[in-house]
Amino acid sequence: MVAVSANTRVETLATSGIHQIPKEYIRPQHELKTITNIFHEHNDQQAPQLPTIDLNHIHSHDPKTRQRCRDELTKAATEWGVMHLVSHGISGDLIGRVKASGESFFDQPVEEKEKYCNDIASGKIQGYGSKLANNACGQLEWEDYFFHLVFPEEKRDLTIWPTKPDDYIPATTEYAKQLRALATKILSVLSLGLGLEEDRLEKEVGGMEELLLQLKINYYPKCPQPELALGVEAHTDVSALTFILHNMVPGLQLFYGGRWVTAKCVPDSIILHIGDTIEILSNGKYKSILHRGLVNKEKVRISWAVFCEPPKEKIILKPLPETVSEEEPPLFPPRTFHQHMEHKLFRKNNDAVDPK
Measuring CA to CA, how many Å separate 117 from each of 129, 162, 213? Predict the structure, then answer.
């Protein structure tokens, strides 16, 4: 078995010619039973499929058409907590530039990428990294990543943004700006779906000044034993909303209806996840779905996840008064966003997390 040092990159392992993955990457027995071939799963026509929401009519002048679009979105948020968005208003050209610049960054030699490495121990979380074992069983995930804040612009640290390729900073900056506008549209529909004022959820998660958009480019190298590993272990997102692009290689699975369901690759779509923050504010009406990432031995998978997060300490997250009644008492205790993250980590370290 190969020994894994603290700073081993998964890409380095994957390209070293190994035929067996190190034991740190092998999942526990209860998970191994559920890990399948992602390409077989992707081709399964009988499996349930997450909704595709066409946002073309979200601001239609026809009230019925507009309402139908909004109802479809809130239904997807209520039943699934995840959906494909199409006609989302962000051009294919811009999305292509974002993907091309991210791929170019990861195409560089590992030594080049190490110039941007993070250092979690010292609190430097932005930059190039690999998953550290932060759970009780010391499990590692089959991925490297690049993580940094992309919006609001005045809070960015451009010194850790890649300067190669040239288009990385301009493309990512413009994408973040347009995604922030899309987040406002989504939050307004979700607010109306709860019977609230249109701008209520936006205010509750920090508004234009305080809601942070964090980009994580996930790089999943080819894996010699994909049936033993996970790219990302089962989790729910702590964010308010998460928007995901990917390079059209399947890997995302959702735990829905008591089983793992593979998300089909929908061209020109952005995947939207409802995060824990919105689930808490809505008192569980909108779902933050358990999901994970599978890997494969044939193709590298890359995804671009943007997490829209409320400020860590400024806001107390709890069910909004309008979502609570005698029949529907609050499902979540009041916590700051930071306390919520700590709570989830504590549960995980104590192995009390749902093992599905």
Answer: 6, 11, 20
pLDDT along the chain (356 residues), means of 10: 64 95 94 94 87 94 95 98 98 98 97 92 91 64 97 96 96 98 98 98 97 98 97 96 98 96 96 98 98 98 98 96 97 97 77 41
What is the pTM (predicted TM-score) of this model?
A: 0.95
On the question of a cis peptide bond just before residue 165, with omega within 30 degrees of 0, the verdict is yes
Question: How far is Cα 309 from Cα 314, in angstroms, rounded to an integer?
Answer: 12
Q: Which two tokens stand for residue 17?
A: 């010619």
Of 1.10.530.10, 2.60.40.420, 2.60.120.330, 3.20.20.70, which CATH number belongs to 10-349? 2.60.120.330
DSSP character string of 28-97: PHHHHTT---HHHHHT-TTS----EEEGGGTT-SSHHHHHHHHHHHHHHHHHTSEEEEES-S--HHHHHH
Domain boundaries, the chain: 10-349
Q: Which residue has the tokens 């997390």?
A: 353
Active site (catalytic) residues: 216, 235, 237, 291
